[in-house]
Amino acid sequence: MLAVYATTACPQAPLDALGFGEQPEPVVPDAEWAVVTVRSAALNHHDLWTLRGSGLMGGAYPRILGCEAAGVDDTGRPVILASVHTDPQWRHDPVRDPRRAMIGETLPGTFAERVAVPRHLLVDRPGGFTDAEAACVAGTFLTAYRMLFTKSRLRPGDTVLIQGATGGVSSALIRLAAAGGFQVWVTGRTAAKRDHALALGAHRGFPPGSVPANAVDAVMESVGEATWAQSLRAARPGGTIVVTGATTGANPPAYLGRIFDRELTVTGSSGGTVDELHRLIAFMQSRAIRPDIDVELPFAQAREGMRRMADGEARGKVVFSW
Q1: Where are the alpha helices (DSSP H) in the chain?
Q2: Between the CA of residue 191 and those of 20, 39, 187, 227, what are the distances in Å?
Q3: What is the torsion angle, in degrees rounded to the nearest 10, for the CA atoms of residue 302, residue 142, residue 243 and residue 309?
Q4: Which residues form the Enoyl reductase (ER) domain (predicted)?
Q5: pLDDT band for position 95 (50/70/90)?
Q6: Bridge partner list, 270
Q7: Is 141-268 CATH 3.30.390.50?
Q8: Which CATH superfamily is domain 2-137+291-321 in?
Q9: How far apart are CA 258 and CA 264, in angstroms?
């Protein structure tokens, strides 16, 4: 079958490790697994990190990329795939399973004509969604949903700052936060990016570094080193910073004095559960929310989509379709 895959780890030039061609058919270990025929799959920053070698041992290559997808299972049911799989013996919050992994880490990913996954990760495709739209729900939008509604402690009317105005997670955060009744502030490096965020539903846009101090109830942080100091400065006393990524670096100065003096809560958030995915779908359908898609490309043009994400050009999700 055809697939988009990482040929090796290439930290400095990740796109040099990108391959497109024949890969082995998926293997189904037992009846609790299903083969899904992929219709569309959404690009995630995780895929760029895989090309760089993060999270995979050298012997894990070649590795089919992709952790977000929509397709049809082996019974003919249109489905979306939850992105995180866990140890079958784990009985607590699946996101906190120490053995959890995203599709594409320990399992071949979704950038293929077919993919094998545990059946419990399959959820009915939302009615009225295209394949491309549905492919974006269980990854980026689920991440944003957990950040806002499970981790942030926000209440309707509170003010939330979303760092980075146009990425996949940021776009999802803006759409969900506006629909949830929050005051939505964003940062963006250019006026065009801030205008795009306002068009998605944000109420105010700021250049990086210009957000007023002590002004917001929570900060959604996925940028990392470039925005960390601003995130701590912008949060009001007693506020919350929810961290789900660090695309510009994971080791900024901690500024512990600011954290304890202002009694800030810093909490991590990673993916989401299948139960949260069901709640997310119901929320999106009740408010007529659709994912913001930057571009939909054939899988054979995956390099162009990857380049748009790597260069920070994408406004919303990059989607590949067969």
Answers
A1: 45-52, 131-135, 142-146, 168-179, 191-200, 228-234, 256-261, 274-286, 302-310
A2: 36, 35, 10, 18
A3: 10
A4: 13-320
A5: confident
A6: none
A7: no
A8: Medium-chain alcohol dehydrogenases, catalytic domain (3.90.180.10)
A9: 8
| Mean pLDDT of the 113-134 span | 96
Single-letter amino acid code for the residue at 16: D
Q: For residue range 148-194, list pLDDT tens digits in order.
A: 999 999 999 999 999 987 778 999 999 999 999 999 999 999 999 99
Tokens 């790597």 belong to 310
Which pTM was predicted?
A: 0.91
Kindly report, residue by residue over 192-243, the tens digit of the pLDDT: 999 999 999 999 999 988 999 999 999 999 999 999 999 999 999 999 999 9
CB atoms within 10 A of CB 271: 21
Look at residue 88 and tell me whether its pLDDT is greater than 80: no
Q: Which of 48, 96, 108 is nearest to 271 (CA)?
A: 96
Mean pLDDT of the region 113-136:
96
DSSP code of residue 16: G
Length of the chain in residues, anyone? 322
Question: What is the C-alpha separation between 119 and 116, in angstroms, rounded?
Answer: 9
Domain ranges of the chain: 2-137+291-321, 141-268
Whose CA is closest to 9, among 53, 43, 44, 41?
A: 53
Q: Write down the pLDDT at residue 315.
A: 85
Q: State the average pLDDT over residues 278-297.
A: 96
Listing DSSP states for 92-128 in one string gives S-GGG-TT-EETTTSS--SSBSEEEEEGGGEEEPPTT
Q: What share of the chain is helix, strand, coil (3-state, %, to 5)?
A: 30, 25, 40
